[in-house]
Every structure is written in C-alpha cells, then in structure tokens.
Design brief:
By secondary structure, this protein is mainly α. The chain is built from three helices and no strands. 72% of the residues lie in helices and 0% in strands.
Length: 89
C-alpha cells in the first residue's frame, strides 16, 4: 500500500508541473511573442504549489488503493489444516 502511494506521488510530481504550465499558458499567441501581463508572482506560485500538492495527494490515495488491491490479490492463500477439513465435513 505504501509503495503504491509513493509511486502515485512520484508520477504526480512528474506529470502535474507540465500540465499546470500548459494550463497557465495563454492561447493563440505565436511562438516567441512577448506578452504584457501584470501578475502577482506570490499568487501564481501559491496556485501552482497548491495544484501540485493536491494532485500528489490524489495520486497517493489512488496508488495506495491500487497497492492494497494488488496486495490482496497476490497474497498467498491460507492453507486449510486437516482438522479444519474434517470439522467442515
């Protein structure tokens, strides 16, 4: 379960920053053109950081659940003892 959570965090850390930068880019601007914009840098940093942390949390939960499910499916079945078999019959 922990391995799945850590894997989810790692994947989110790799995917989210390019996605946030793509989402924040203005549309319809030719490559290399300068854009005049007045932005509040602390607000932009807070937005990007919050998005990264949110998606890391979501990915950690998804990874933990996936790890739990895989762990349950892969674990060896418990052997039934001879006394238990005779009691059931």
């Amino acid at each position: 379960m922990q391995l799945g959570a850590l894997l989810g965090i790692a994947i989110a850390s790799w995917i989210v920053p390019p996605a946030v930068s793509w989402y924040a880019e203005p549309a319809g601007v030719p490559g290399g053109a300068q854009i005049q914009a007045l932005v509040q840098i602390p607000e932009v940093i807070r937005y990007a950081t919050n998005k990264l942390i949110f998606w890391q949390t979501v990915a950690a939960v998804i990874g933990a659940v996936a790890g739990l499910v895989i762990g349950i499916m892969v674990r060896p079945k418990a052997k039934v003892s001879e006394t238990t078999r005779t009691e059931k019959q």
